[in-house]
């Protein structure tokens, strides 16, 4: 019985060490919003194409099979979108992804009320949260923040 217990303990240790080797830490991807273009909408909905530059600072390729993102402006939710595009971002390389997002009339109204309470429109803060879907353990979450200047 002790011999069986010793073998099981040894086997468990070997499996645990090999699992650690499989789940090496990855650096987070770098995301930058590089453009927002209008798309045709329907009724009270606005549509936009958000262009993201995704940089992979890792030694391994990132395979993805879907993109999701949420956009907040001035601390308030503005738009959300998903795309079923798939591909790979090579090791130490970058790619531009375009994700269509929807903006509801309620979100526009909420932003208009928020803008009316601001003393200046300079340095409007935005935040983008999202993920590159890649299976059970391959999903990469991302976040980008910044400010943009509204045209005068």
From TrEMBL:
Tell me one GO biological process term. response to desiccation
Record's SMART domains?
Answer: WHy
Gene3D superfamilies recorded: 2.60.40.1820
- What is the official name of this protein in its record? Uncharacterized protein
Task: Please report the organism this UniProt entry assigns to the protein.
Answer: Pseudomonas bharatica CSV86
Q: What is the lineage of its organism?
A: Bacteria, Pseudomonadati, Pseudomonadota, Gammaproteobacteria, Pseudomonadales
